[in-house]
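Why predict the complex rather than its parts? Because the way molecules touch one another can change local conformation, and only a joint prediction can capture that. The input here totals 658 residues.
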Amino acid sequence: MGSPEEDTPRLKDLTIDNITDNVKAINDQGSDPRLKYILERAVQHIHDFARETRLSHQEWMTGIQFLTAVGQKCTDVRQEFILLSDILGLSLLVESIDHPKPAASTEGTVLGPFHSHDVHDEPNGAVISHDPDGEPCLVVCSIKDTDGKPVDDVKIDIWEADSHGFYDVQYAGRDGPDQRAVMRSGKDGVFWFKAIVPVPYPVPADGPVGKLLGLLGRHAYRPSHMHFMFEKPGYDHLITALYLRGSKYEHTDAVFGVKESLLIDLKPVDAEMAKKYDVKEGTKLISYDFVLVSEEDSRKLREKNAMAAMEKLGRRMKLYKGLPVPDVD
Amino acid sequence: MGSPEEDTPRLKDLTIDNITDNVKAINDQGSDPRLKYILERAVQHIHDFARETRLSHQEWMTGIQFLTAVGQKCTDVRQEFILLSDILGLSLLVESIDHPKPAASTEGTVLGPFHSHDVHDEPNGAVISHDPDGEPCLVVCSIKDTDGKPVDDVKIDIWEADSHGFYDVQYAGRDGPDQRAVMRSGKDGVFWFKAIVPVPYPVPADGPVGKLLGLLGRHAYRPSHMHFMFEKPGYDHLITALYLRGSKYEHTDAVFGVKESLLIDLKPVDAEMAKKYDVKEGTKLISYDFVLVSEEDSRKLREKNAMAAMEKLGRRMKLYKGLPVPDVD
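Output of the joint prediction:
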């Protein structure tokens, strides 16, 4: 091995046509095969994008300034790059690739930018929304595995907007978490709590991503929904949400999260349930049976899908830590 | 026309396979055909990138955090996104696409992140570097058009690093511009000044882009060079640089800027020149004849190249403000 200077590719007189292969070559000197593959594909696509659009210097500078503004809009409680990924459909795509769901299990959807770790553990039955303007809503759900057996002690993250369409983290003067909780499923796989009926709301539209939505003639709204995240060792991590059927924006969600299987109808609580859960008869009810897939089944399906996709690309690949890399042996 | 809600595509049950077309469809509602085409290609490439890498949620989050850090590293005098574009070869590619040069004219190269508008006008003959540690260098150049005629009154931006490899803007306590100037060519197309011999230096490597270079096993160095930018109405804007032949990193420039036609050899000033330009005999000399292409010729070549590239893509396109967009009529 000579010095790095001698070993690297010769990079001179690069043109529109030869630059991509040479940038790939100089990026191929690291030791992590997965990082090298990711960079190889990133460089190919970024360069193809510039060639196919004949990107002008002025447009390039507009892009540089846009990405800079997106980065600078990010704070501890706001992630504008996730929002950008959301409105371009990348977030849902990555979720679909990374967490494939066998037919029998609950589908996943976008995490969104409002999940927070600043949240309290709550027991079943807790009131998790203290918004006086919200319409009360009882939520009673169960968690099962793909064999139909209840799954207990699942860690469940729940978060929703308030009746004005804002999450707690969007208020400058907030003094703690609200409209969110972490709870655990009981022995029967059931978890339940008291919240408010979700309402539609816009994603934060006062930053560069909101401006882009405007230029594209798109609205910033999401249909009414409540977020859920499920974690238990041995089960595939499930990020999902329940959407109210018939909600405005059901068909035009700004972040592409709605799935038929995740649509629910609000029902009124009957006399028996009202007594059991200590709510007024007629209170709105959200009820859903979530089905978790095992980590093993999810991994197998993800790896099978990955290799099938690689075969379609016509490239000789192998798995490295469960993810595809070129098979150069 | 109904409400926006009714007009937009129906976006539900999106999958790995159908999400791209649907995101493209909802992005296609704006009025600017060029923005729509750019977004269409961006979405295609971002989604293809995720599909071809089977991008994991964790890798996606690493990417989100990386881009956020790049944005947050930017200040008034530091542009980390331009640096990222530079080290991925995008900057040189865009420059090549936007400013094609007929064979007879001077090639362009990367602008780099250190051009500054905080610069003084200087007359010909000015000393533009006040670095006491720099090796003095006389620079005498001419500017001609492609017919060989001198071009006078061209606005010329010149900037270089000091002898320690830093630009003025990289010093926290700087009290004004140094190693940079704006001057004008004389009636004979000549401009000249006194500077220092350029030295190799690393691009700023203390941020996220420097960290990426490290992970890729790449060094951060550029070979010795001096930047030039030429502007005159009627002539294509020329961003270029002269590189010292034989400089370390000549073949491994971290930002891919070196071109054979831009390599120069330092020569010693002879007795006659020493007298004429009032420098010591034997002082290092940089001399180069720059050739500017007319705006008209550059535009024609750019548009011809664009349409040829579009034809290769097999897509029916037309020019809109000189840039390709789909021909949907």
